[in-house]
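Recall the central idea of this unit: under ordinary conditions, the amino acid sequence of a chain determines the structure it adopts. In this exercise we apply that idea directly, starting from the sequence alone.
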Amino acid sequence: MSTGVESFVLNSANARFKAQYPKYLRWATLAAFILTALIWALFPDIKTKPYKLRQEEFQAVDIEDQEVIDIPPPPQEAPPPPKVIEAAPDDEVTEEVEIHWQKPVYPEIARKAQMEGTVLVKVLVGPDGSVKNAQIIQGVNPILDKAALAAALKCKFIPGKQRNIPVKAQMALPFSFRLH
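Accordingly, the structure predicted from this sequence is:
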């Protein structure tokens, strides 16, 4: 004897499908096998052929000499000027930023290649005096630029103060690489 709840659950479409699912799966698998065997029986001589690339024939065409027009290269756009962080009109910056300079390591490969120059690095000094961000403003060579960035990130500062509160500041640091 079954209760009304069980008959209600078995009467739903979802429950009936789930109950019949193994039977549906068996019939679908059997149908796929029969269909595959039937295709093999009806078409036994089908052979695949590899794709052959068509050889296209080209004809040489003589082109008369044309006038060469020299087009000047477009002018290079100047990089935007660095943003200046100014104090509010009633505020006064009381201290200059002091630098604890970190000398860059001159890469040996740059030394052997006799690379020289000055790399200009823009740094963002946080309120704690550490460098928060550094980027190349004017580079010389990727090898020297990388060494200058590494040195800039190791520099320590005494941050400027505004109303006796340490503030973020940006500044440019030149790193010179000279052989002699």
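Residues 97 and 160 are 5 Å apart (CA to CA).
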